[in-house]
Design goal:
2 domains; Non-ribosomal Peptide Synthetase Peptidyl Carrier Protein, Chain A; 15% strand; nine-stranded parallel sheet; two-stranded antiparallel ribbon; alpha/beta; single chain; TIM Barrel
Length: 333
């Protein structure tokens, strides 16, 4: 297995990338994942039409910092003209890659004809991609898709071929249909079929929860890069685990105390990067705090308490209490 892949002119280590996740993968999240070895990150999805109408959140969503590179800005939309205009605006923020979302299953996005609705209209999907590629110049354009709209229309290989013909530099495939949302199991055979159908790099996505599932995705599909979404929740360490596995090194999972320190570091970063007051910024941090506590004794009760946090001091106190609970539990066994 080669050590790197190239998407257009961008070189990416062939370990694991962070998937774009609306409402989750903000700059603080991306920076935490990069710190622990994410090979490549993608922004939260940004409305192409919103950018064209000078949406006030454009700068916040599209800014790319050097610590995040290589990084893509992800756009969604259903009209080629708006997509081309949005690409020109985004280029001012110097992303390494521009990614187009054709996989988001949420009704709010699908209802506009964007996201995974485009799995039902391959010609329009290709037209949008071609418009973006022309506007992007030397910046590579990639597309993220699903296996199909539903079980009766698994068309990812056909879609990928059309996107390649339209100039896409790579395609990422989530092995679920739109109507599955995030339930059931991701089908890696569809990703394999896409890899066999095109010559551009294929990124495999879906159900990567640890190093073993990452290695399995590489071996079963032949994909060029693996992308991790929900498997990184409260677990930026997954990227370090995968790096170790691919190098043949022994991986030592972090101790609980380390996880709580990293959780607090993540919360500090959220507060530092937020333009909101501490209490409102802590609302953004709550879910992340809860995810870091997953899988431990008594964590359900503590996760519930995470959703009440309104200050950093409260998060510190809760982390200490959680550590003490685990220590007393160990002592009693």
């Amino acid at each position: 297995m080669t050590d790197t892949i190239k998407i257009g002119r961008v070189t990416i280590p062939r370990t694991a990338a962070l998937a774009p996740m609306a409402g989750v993968a903000d700059r603080a999240y991306r920076l935490m994942c990069k710190k622990y070895g994410a090979a490549y990150v993608v922004s939260e999805m940004v409305s192409a039409k919103g950018i064209c109408y000078s949406d006030r959140k454009t700068a916040e969503l599209c800014t790319v910092t050097d610590d995040e590179r290589p990084m893509a800005v992800q756009l969604f939309g259903s009209e080629p003209d708006f997509m081309a205009e949005a690409v020109k605006i985004v280029l001012e923020y110097r992303p390494d890659i521009i990614d187009i979302n054709m996989g988001c299953p949420v009704p709010k996005v699908v209802g506009t004809g964007a996201g995974s609705a485009l799995m039902k209209d391959i010609k329009l999907a290709a037209d949008i991609t071609e418009a973006a590629v022309k506007a992007a110049g030397e910046t590579p354009v990639t597309v993220k898709i699903r296996s199909g709209w539903n079980a009766e229309s698994i068309n990812a290989p056909e879609m990928a071929k059309a996107l390649e013909a339209a100039g896409a530099a790579a395609v990422a495939v989530h092995g679920r249909t739109r109507d599955m949302f995030y339930s059931g199991e991701s089908d890696s055979s569809v990703i394999k079929a896409v890899k066999e159908a095109v010559s551009i790099p294929v990124i495999g996505n879906g159900d990567i929860t640890d190093a073993d599932s990452c290695v399995k995705m590489y071996s079963e599909t032949g994909c060029d890069l693996v992308m991790i979404g929900r498997g990184s929740y409260g677990n930026p360490f997954i990227f370090r685990e995968i790096e170790a596995k691919l190098r043949g090194e022994v991986y030592e999972p972090p101790a609980l105390e380390t996880k709580m320190q990293v959780m607090l570091e993540h919360i500090r970063l959220i507060l530092e990067l937020s333009e909101k007051c501490e209490e409102l910024a802590m609302h953004e941090a709550r879910k992340h705090a809860a995810w870091y506590m997953n899988g431990y004794y008594g964590s359900a009760k503590f996760r519930g308490r995470c959703y009440q946090l309104s200050s950093y001091a409260e998060a510190e106190a809760l982390a200490d209490e959680f550590i003490q609970l685990q220590r007393s539990r160990q002592a009693s066994l």
